[in-house]
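$ ./design --mode recover --in tokens.txt
reading tokens...
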């Protein structure tokens, strides 16, 4: 049917494959064989993986996912675009949702919420509602802001616990890389997810700062 350009799911595939934003091996309609089908499937998976990874690497919203690596069986760290992530195993549902939303920039911090504000608010003007000195980003809210004593106490307790758990020195001056490291570690992910939930909850209780 497909070779005669009649409607069907195989015909749909032949139409869709050339329209994808990456190159895929052509599907042979007249004389398909197992090798041809395997080539199509392999090129589709490879192209999709590279395409998604490029989006992650270039998106201003996905910077916490950049350079994400996973351990192999020999403990070597490698980049894997498609994988069931360990943070999805966090038992507490609220904590799991909080860390997932943070990573995917689906949180309620100003850097994301004011992206949709009209009139437009420039990124550098999406200031923290607690201190109004820096952009209200995940790394600022969790690791830098000193505009609330409750927040400082939450952070100090958290950093003390994860520093003891991982036996590494916490360098607060590298907040983005530190946050990535805390999220990527299976040893600290549950506590980091809990901390993320508590910090976002604290920020939600305060009205967002919107510049005039």
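writing sequence...
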């Amino acid at each position: 049917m497909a070779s005669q350009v009649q409607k069907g799911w195989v015909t749909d595939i032949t139409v869709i494959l050339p329209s994808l934003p990456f190159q895929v091996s052509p599907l042979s309609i007249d004389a398909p064989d197992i090798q041809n089908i395997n080539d199509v499937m392999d090129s589709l998976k490879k192209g999709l993986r590279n395409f998604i990874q490029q989006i992650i690497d270039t998106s201003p919203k996905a910077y916490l996912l950049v350079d994400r690596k996973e351990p192999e069986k020999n403990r070597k760290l490698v980049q894997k675009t498609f994988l069931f992530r360990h943070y999805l195993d966090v038992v507490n549902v609220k904590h799991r949702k909080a860390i997932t939303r943070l990573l995917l920039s689906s949180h309620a911090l100003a850097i994301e919420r004011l992206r949709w504000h009209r009139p437009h608010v420039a990124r550098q003007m999406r200031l923290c509602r607690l201190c109004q000195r820096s952009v209200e980003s995940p790394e600022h809210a969790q690791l830098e802001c000193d505009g609330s004593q409750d927040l400082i106490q939450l952070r100090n307790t958290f950093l003390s616990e994860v520093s003891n758990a991982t036996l590494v020195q916490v360098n607060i001056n590298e907040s983005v890389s530190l946050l990535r490291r805390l999220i990527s570690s299976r040893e600290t992910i549950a506590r980091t997810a809990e901390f993320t939930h508590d910090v976002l909850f604290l920020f939600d209780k305060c009205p967002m700062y919107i510049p005039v």
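exit 0
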